[in-house]
Amino acid sequence: MPELPEVETFKRYLDSTSLHQRIINVEVRDTYVLKRTSPLQLARGLKGRHFESSCRHGKHLFVRADNELWVRLHFGMTGSLEYLNHDKSVPQAARVIFRFANSRRLVFDDQRKFGEIELIKDVDEFLQTRNLGPDALGISLSQFKAIVEKHRGAVKAILLNQQLIAGIGNLYADEILFRARIHPAADVVRLNEKYLKRLFRATRDVLARAVALKTDFNRLPKSWLLTHREKRGRCPRCGRVLRSATIGGRTSWFCAYCQKRI
Ligand SMILES: [Zn+2]
Q1: pLDDT at 216
Q2: Distance between CA atoms of residues 186 and 188, nearest Å
Q3: HSE, side-chain direction, 13 A CA sphere, residue 221
Q4: What's this model's pTM, rounded to 2 decimal places?
Q5: CA nearest to 138, candidates 232, 8, 6, 2
Q6: Annotated catalytic sites, by residue?
Q7: Share above pLDDT 90 across residues of the chain, in percent, rounded to a whole number
Q8: Between the CA of residue 99 and those of 87, 161, 216, what are the distances in Å?
Q9: Which residues pair with residue 71 across a beta bridge?
Q10: Distance 195 CA to ligand 1 centre (A)
Q11: For residue 69, what are the β-bridge partners?
Q12: Distance 209 CA to ligand 1 centre (A)
């Protein structure tokens, strides 16, 4: 499921391929993806305009069309972007195709159909309406501490709550907790200053590194949990067999030896 690092990677991909080209048509192949927007509104809103810039907040990507409006993209479980030359065929799971005057196309591809596309007027207004927390890569240590200290319950559930901190999903939450050596079920009220700092640093480090590696699974360090999280997978730190449990409503992988319940 695309989390902050994947969405940031899509943002950079879009910025490097799809800006400043006149949009001549928008084809919606499956309407489930449109939220509060009809295929006609999307096409009318974008026809003749250009994608000028983009910004990301948490797992949402916002693309500005001229100075008029924004297209919000959310990638759900399997969403992705592909920029196609005129001779490339459109993938089977293409849900929306943005056609440019130069015959290139930007495709929103989504196998499992949890993605979302919406036209909005204002990004800040959207973030407020959704009550989204600060972006996990833009947050400061003092903000991070203030948010975590105000809550109680499993630390993993806090990391996953988009209204508290936006951008972290199941895979990277596990990775962050592994890096910080904190058990996913540890209650946040038990995290002292030292653990809070460690958790904050792990959040920044893991997300930034994943972005830098363009979330390429094959390039992720072998010392990470991500490449070992499976049945009979072993902890890359101590070699013991990893455990899994449902925590915060999601399947969590962790090392019961290295990660303390505190
Ligand atoms: Zn271990």
Answers
A1: 93
A2: 6
A3: 14
A4: 0.96
A5: 8
A6: 2-3, 59, 250
A7: 95
A8: 13, 36, 28
A9: 63, 119
A10: 18
A11: 65
A12: 21
